């Protein structure tokens, strides 16, 4: 793969508006997080003091989440139970306006639920409520009709198989054949060793273990992976295989047997949960937008490197992929400047690790010792410090038309270069109230020239049990005074 990856950026941007159909096994994922501080007196087991609960669509639903994060429009077809969990799954599946969930409710079936109990960064227990994989014939026929009808309106199809019944009994092949007739590519995330049910698919994305299981061949080195992949391609008329290899990256093998080995991208791995879903989603979105398979695989490899650096079942956003492609050797400072949505996700990951999140804000125009002192004190109150930075338009409204001296790109770069700062978010409002409400920090820091009652957002932070800290000010320093001195000096020259 060429070192000039910036050429891939327009291909990622082309995803916007691409329509992907996802058919597969959906489930409801719940995460119960908290702290463990003692052992139960009832049994030798840890007691989890619950601090937070989150929910999201799992299984095929996580592919949907990743597609929406990349900017694709998604039609989602799956089966749920006719129960409260099914209604909840429908609700969380449609949280993005880019997603249309077309879920079939089966009164004879319960919705699959997976609950993970997490302390810090350690999963303690997973509890599963599993559905019977057998589908009623009428439900199965209804599902297949919806899927085939939806094929014509999409640019790519994803089959996400978790062996819960949706893609069994010839339904996968029927959807593949309908897509092939319409010249629409099909990407399959497989399950089990019966790959005959994916006959004719354009791409299958097994991991190394699944590849070995499906072929009964070894897959422990480059040559072995290519050999095993070709055996599946030839046996089932597949367009190719993209084999995910964990820390060893990925290998793409086409019908000609020409392999493309892609080394792992991540510098830091926190959690590989859902990384396969990110790969499938990215490849489908890219191919659906007209990209060649090799380019799609290269971008998917970058996306996987981003998502494994996050905690929990996370997603990768298009802007993150573009930033990584644009800055092949992206600096730590550049990586700290995130959108509000990205910041909220990063903070949630930190919380799952048991980290305390602090927040401060300001214009930070012409950084001076007073700013440095405030930031150093702010960082001392927490494990991770988030800085809310006023946008250029916001600074003009607050400080006048001559401000800011430095634009928001320059100010955010300077701020992010400081060791005391872990994350920077630019906000456009006059106050950070809405940003604080979204990010939900554990502690908020402002200068001692304020009283707590006058600190914007203090009521929010105190309301959810957080802390507001007033930092000591370093006398004799202000941006306005510095600008005045510079202006007066320039006039006397």
3D structure, described in words:
The protein folds into 2 domains: 5-330, Ribokinase (UDP-N-acetylmuramoyl-L-alanine:D-glutamate ligase, 3-Layer(aba) Sandwich); 337-492, 3-Layer(aba) Sandwich (Rossmann fold). It is 38% helix and 25% strand. The protein has helices spanning 9-13, 60-69, 84-93, 137-151, 171-181, 208-215, 222-236, 275-288, 293-307, 318-326, 332-336, 340-352, 369-380, 392-399, 408-416, 433-439, 458-463, 479-492; strands at 19-24, 26-39, 46-59, 73-81, 99-106, 113-119, 122-129, 156-160, 186-189, 203-204, 240-244, 250-254, 259-262, 337-338, 357-362, 384-390, 423-427, 443-447, 467-471. Strand 11 and strand 12 form a beta hairpin. Helix 2 crosses helix 8 (275-288), helix 4 (137-151) runs parallel beside helix 5 and helix 9 crosses helix 10.
Keywords:
493 residues, alpha/beta, UDP-N-acetylmuramoyl-L-alanine:D-glutamate ligase, Rossmann fold, 2 domains, six-stranded parallel beta sheet, 18 helices, globular
